[in-house]
Amino acid sequence: MKNDPVDVLIIGAGASGAAVAWSLADTKMHILCLDQGGWMNPAEYPSTGRDWEAKFYGEWSSSPNIRKRPEDYPINDDNSPIKVVNFNAVGGSTVMYTAHWPRLHPSDFKVKTLDGVADDWPIDYDALTPFFEENDRMMGVSGLSGDPLSPLSHPPMPQQPLGLSGPLIGTAMNKLGWHWWPSDTTVATMDYEGRARCINLGHCTPACAQGAKASTDITYWPHAIRAGVELRTHCRVREILTNKDGMASGVVYYDKDGVEQFQPAEVVIIACNGVGTPRLLLNSVSGKFPNGLANSSGLVGKNLMFHPYAQVYGFVKEPTDSNRAPPTCLWSKEFYDTDLSRGFVRGYGIQFGRGAGPVFEAVASEQKGILPWGRDHHRVFRKLNGHRLAVSAICEDLPEEHNRVTLDPVLKDSHGIPAPKIDYTISANSRKMMDHGLARGREILEAAGATDICINDPIPWGGWHLLGTARMGTDPARSVVNEWGRSHDVKNLFIVDGSIFVTSGGVNPTSTIQALALYIADQMKQRLANLFD
């Protein structure tokens, strides 16, 4: 394998790696991206067959510790009530995500100023606005512009149909006088940029065989590759090396045959998510960087933020959408910003679930004890199946240094690289927020006429959103990268994924992660002449 020096080396081909590759392609630099996964074949996705739900409990589990694909790495999350879920492939976790598409709010960038907690971001919402818009066009967003409690967006496609579940939820929210709105999604409601519209093959997680759900392997990457970016798959990076001047010189990686290689580069960009990025930095030790690369602050791996999910669900007499259509069709921002009378700071978003498939319903309801065995089994199942409504509070997680990613002293991946170890506890503030969300969710379900109400608190397999472990800031003692993603310590090293988040907000982060990646790429292009000063 030929490893000639490249101008820019990107590690990771997921949400942020794809966006930054596409944006930098117009510089005509030699750009190479390495990803430990490969190209996915939509013909093999679970939604092509009737056994799609069963596969979600095995080889298509959201947890790498369960599915154990060769591309995965193990994660020791025994010391966390929330388990890490991710996906390693071209497209990363956008292959598997639910395609829910909110943005962080302007207030999320100023929590220290507004509420006296955590830290303000070194940039504000306005700096990202053009990149949110650009990313919405590239990913292909469906939605209804004009939500009074959300940042203004201009989705290029109409919103998802309300279906059977939407009116039940909307009517309940209207009874309570609470905000609700059709949610933005990256599921196509019309043919768009070569993608076919949604035909309801099944739940959007784990993957969309129709190609209606935007994942970066079918959005950004075709454009980036046509523009000259090189993408090398099944290449697992072990560490980033530095030269005598303390600059990144390239990476050591294992190729598809397991052979160790060195890839030299002028600039290195990390896009490995909030767990993979600190793992790589902490494993990149040297005489100059004995505590891990770019870690003079000691904050690499610390301040890990998930979004604790508190979910309450119940069953209505009317039929719901079950597993048909994008599962999160509506959102509410009624409790998003701080109201100290609630007993906690910051707030949460509400996501509404349309229902669940029959296999999931059978398994979950048996576990909850509401689906009996014996004579009543089929009667009760008919009452439950296709009648579920769910309310989830996605709670803002404030940064705490004891929530962290370290290297496990024993567990290793298939190439002998130390696995990440997660230490995480839900804070007292988040606990109060979750309790508040559960109480409001119960009110919503009762207003919808639901019975057999059940709780998942927290959702254990809810560690989708991996944030904060290499935070951005202007003070090198309090942050890992500066306000445009460049390492304080290593001037030709950049990070573009969710690890650079300062705070987490109360919404899914993918839209903001990609807007940040595009913003950082734009800053790099503007500063090319003095990139290493």
From TrEMBL:
One Pfam family hit: GMC_oxred_N
Molecular function (Gene Ontology), one example: flavin adenine dinucleotide binding
InterPro entries named in the record: FAD/NAD-bd_sf, GMC_OxRdtase_N, GMC_OxRtase_C
Protein keywords: FAD, Flavoprotein, Oxidoreductase
Stretches that traverse the bilayer: none
Oxidoreductase recorded as keyword: yes
Domain Glucose-methanol-choline oxidoreductase N-terminal, chain residue ranges per copy: 7-308
Domain Glucose-methanol-choline oxidoreductase C-terminal: 399-517
Family: Belongs to the GMC oxidoreductase family.
Protein name as annotated: GMC family oxidoreductase
Native source species: Bradyrhizobium uaiense
Organism phylogeny: Bacteria, Pseudomonadati, Pseudomonadota, Alphaproteobacteria, Hyphomicrobiales
